[in-house]
Amino acid sequence: MDLILASASPRRKELLAQIGVRFDVSPVDICEDVLSGESPEHYVQRLACEKALECFNHTDKTIPVLGSDTTVVLDTQIMGKPRDRSESLEMLLALSGRTHQVMTAVAVVTSERTDSVVVKTDVCFKELSREECESYWWTGEPLDKAGSYGIQGMGAVFVESIKGSYSSVVGLPLAETAQLLTRVNVPIWQSGKV
Ligand SMILES: Cc1cn([C@H]2C[C@H](O)[C@@H](COP(=O)(O)OP(=O)(O)OP(=O)(O)O)O2)c(=O)[nH]c1=O
């Protein structure tokens, strides 16, 4: 095992496995409140670093740890996961017919250094009706996702176009993650080797 993934997200696990990294999963629980006056970019970067550090500090510090955070940003408004149906509807209706940014930060901590990156992707939504948002809520998909939708799931029907990294919207920007891992000598492409 070459890395610890400090995340409970099934998407991050799948994405990291996709690029052939050998890792174990060890989720952490940190406070995800936004600080007063904090920019979205600073917020995601801080959370990714805190998740990775919190996990690293509970290990013997010999294996690098990766933490990540994804948030949806509309103008300057930060959208995390919806608390309930009414918050989900509010978020989806605000995103309707507009372009928002999905920001995902990745942080890798070793005993020598902490490296991090923030990746921003523009996502353009078609116009949504209240009825559509309501039926989408009942699919169960919005609940554990920033901005209340999953581009990789049924929420794909809302997305007219994206500019940037698809994997970043799902939860882990793979090109940038591979770069961070290579810098600390964590190998990729380990599965399916001949
Ligand atoms: C926008 C969008 C977000 N998401 C998900 C990715 C993240 O799992 C989640 C945002 O929540 P996060 O707080 O970034 O992550 P998490 O709580 O799921 O996992 P952990 O903190 O343990 O790493 O939203 C999608 O799956 N699809 C999407 O299209």
From TrEMBL:
Organism: Neptuniibacter caesariensis
UniProt subcellular location: Cytoplasm
Active-site positions on this chain: D69 (proton acceptor)
One Gene Ontology cellular component: cytoplasm
EC top class named in words: hydrolase
Site (Important for substrate specificity): R11, T70, Q152
Protein name: dTTP/UTP pyrophosphatase
Role this protein plays: Nucleoside triphosphate pyrophosphatase that hydrolyzes dTTP and UTP. May have a dual role in cell division arrest and in preventing the incorporation of modified nucleotides into cellular nucleic acids.
Enzyme Commission (EC) number: 3.6.1.9
Family matches, as NCBIfam families: maf
InterPro entries membership: ITPase-like_fam, Maf-like
Catalytic activity: UTP + H2O = UMP + diphosphate + H(+); dTTP + H2O = dTMP + diphosphate + H(+)
Entries under SUPFAM superfamilies matching the protein: ITPase-like
GO molecular function: nucleoside triphosphate diphosphatase activity
Keywords per UniProt: Cytoplasm, Hydrolase, Nucleotide metabolism
The organism's place on the tree of life at top rank: Bacteria
Cofactor list: a divalent metal cation
